[in-house]
Amino acid sequence: NSIYQLLQRCLEVLRREFSELKTVMADQLMYVKEDLILPHHYTFYDFIVTKARGKSGPLFTFDVHDDIRMVHDASVETEESHAGKVLL
């Protein structure tokens, strides 16, 4: 699925709660992951296969890791993936 398809689906879901989005098109939305604005024409597969990285680590990870609690250090890159944001 492409980023554009994700944005279309998000818009369908959000329109139920926010009537202000009635006139908004998916072209007007942005998907931001980590510190990157992801273009509409890319697919999630593209980012996963190329192991795309953001400022703090990989954009998408689906690996299983043991839950090891440590003191967090901002200077150390983590292997965690954070939620993306849909913006207007």
Automatic annotation (TrEMBL):
Transmembrane segments: none
GO biological process: chromatin organization
FAM50A/XAP5 C-terminal domain ranges (all copies): 2-87
Entry GO terms, CC: nucleus
Taxonomy, superkingdom: Eukaryota
UniProt-listed InterPro entries: FAM50A/XAP5_C, XAP5
Family from the record: Belongs to the FAM50 family.
Xref: PANTHER family: PROTEIN FAM50A, XAP-5 PROTEIN-RELATED
Entry protein name: Protein FAM50 homolog
Lineage of the organism: Eukaryota, Metazoa, Ecdysozoa, Arthropoda, Hexapoda
